[in-house]
Write a structure and sequence with these properties.
- The chain is mainly α.
- It has a domain of 35 residues.
- Helix 1 packs antiparallel against helix 2.
- The chain is rod-shaped and about 75 Å long.
């Protein structure tokens, strides 16, 4: 997820939080919400990248072993 997308999600979360909370909500409260959303998005992004790397490594290893099997059978 790009930084721009993360920031737009943070802004959207802050706007929603402000609309859903009573008027006595402080900027600090909203900042905590934005920070929580941002941290969660970063964690999800990291986990997604890790999954993609594992899938890519598995695919590469599989194709290499398939190529080795094919060349040894000829």
């Amino acid at each position: 997820m790009s930084i721009a997308h993360e920031l737009s999600c943070d802004v959207a979360a802050a706007i929603l939080a402000e609309q859903m909370n009573p008027p006595e909500t402080t900027a600090a409260d909203l900042s905590e919400i934005v920070l929580a959303v941002h941290s969660t998005l970063r964690q999800m992004t990291t986990e997604a990248r890790t999954r993609k790397r594992r899938a890519t490594a598995t695919a590469i290893n599989s194709s290499q072993s398939d190529a080795a099997t094919a060349s040894s059978s000829h």
